[in-house]
Amino acid sequence: MTGLCIGIDIGTSNMTAYVEGKGIVFSRPSVIACDAHNGKILALGESAFAMTGRTPGSIEIIHPFSDGVVSDLSKTVAMLSDFVDKVCRLTVLKPNIIASVPSDITSLERKAILDVLEMSGAGKVCIMEHSYAAAMGADVAFAKPYGTMIVDIGGGTVDIAVVTMGNIAVSKTIRFASEAFTQDIIRYLRRERDIEVGYLTAENIKRTIGGAVIRNEEIALISKGRNAVTGTPINFEITSTEVYWAIKEHVELILSGVKEVFSSISPELSADIFESGIVLSGKGSLLYGIDTFLESATGVPVRIAKDPWLCVAKGLGKSLHNIRKLKKNGYEFRYRDEF
User: Fold this and answer.
1) What is the 3-state secondary structure (H, E, C) of the chain?
2) Least confident range of 60-74, 78-92, 114-128
3) Which of 18, 101, 150, 197 has the most neighbouring CB atoms within 10 Å?
4) Where are the domains of the chain?
């Protein structure tokens, strides 16, 4: 296949790219800052993310790719085009791009992804489920008739799948993920403490003291916010136990999704998973105690993949090294009008 091959994990929170022959070359927030009046793009990635919560009314912060699907076509194209231009500026041929998508993507959502890839400068395109790519990136050996469960906890979706014989046996997508934990913290502080905080503050709280289980030794964090009653700035303390209760409902919904997948597979695959365990990937798997929580609730061993936030991008990259095998498993590069 002629032309440079690129794998792109387009996430709600971050976009990560793998370039053939170079490895992972790019990872940045999936955020755009634009003029609220005319839509002109002012900043992309890290610089746009740093503006979150600090912009005047004339500037709008947009997440063009939300919950695993395109929410703003033109802005998603702009975000991807900027990357493709940087990577392919010295090449003549259009690149071949494989991108990851939720396993339950609708035909309309699939069309939108394909349109975005073509409009961003791709030649041939291919799309692959998050869970399949994550399993490859996590070095899960699933070519033989032996089942393993992969749970990819991204920013906008949780993709749960059982993989066996080189393919997905059963899958489920939950349309929320670690971004929901951040919003849970914002709502909790407003509801229970009359404190208003922005996205960046809540995100820092989640990453620093958040957890899927109550810690044996409670820890606390001093943070900044605004008194919702008086409107004045305040410093406040929040504990790890408070954050646990704030996000508990969404954590338990992940468990419900895992149990639902277990109930839909054969006893033989269930027995395999009891031995091989559950593999966690995605940035959300870094939430303190999520592995312990799932293992305790299911009785199945749980491990977190190495560099879990890179698993999908690594898996897309691995697929580029064996196009023939990729095609055999139902993933084929085509021009947009061939779909």
Assistant:
1) CCCCEEEEEECCCEEEEEECCCEEEEEEECCEEEECCCCCEEEECHHHHHCCCCCCCCEEEECCEECCEECCHHHHHHHHHHHHHHHCCCCCCCCEEEEEECCCCCHHHHHHHHHHHHHCCCCCEEEEEHHHHHHHHCCCCCCCCCCEEEEEECCCCEEEEEEECCEEEEEEEECCCHHHHHHHHHHHHHHHHCEECCHHHHHHHHHHHCECCCCCCCCEEEEEEEECCCCCEEEEEEEHHHHHHHHHHHHHHHHHHHHHHHHCCCHHHHHHHHHHCEEEECHHHHCECHHHHHHHHHCCCEEECCCHHHHHHHHHHHHHCCHHHHHHCCCCCECHHHC
2) 78-92
3) 150
4) 5-132+311-338, 141-305
Mean pLDDT for 44-67 is 91
Residue range 193-209: average pLDDT? 97
Q: How confident is the model at residue 136 (pLDDT cuts 50, 70, 90)?
A: very high
Q: What are phi and psi of 285, to 5 degrees?
A: -70, -10
Whether 141-305 and 5-132+311-338 are alike in CATH topology: the answer is: yes
Mean model confidence pLDDT for the chain: 93
pLDDT, tens only, 32-47: 999 999 989 999 999 9
pLDDT score of 327? 81
CATH superfamily of 141-305: ATPase, nucleotide binding domain (3.30.420.40)
Going by C-beta distance under 8 Å and a sequence separation of 6 or more, which residues neighbour residue 61? Answer: 31, 32, 33, 48, 51, 52, 55
pLDDT for res 90:
67
Question: What local confidence, expressed as pLDDT, does residue 191 receive?
Answer: 97
pTM over 0.85: yes
Domain 5-132+311-338: which CATH number of 3.20.20.80, 3.30.420.40, 3.10.20.30, 3.40.50.300:
3.30.420.40
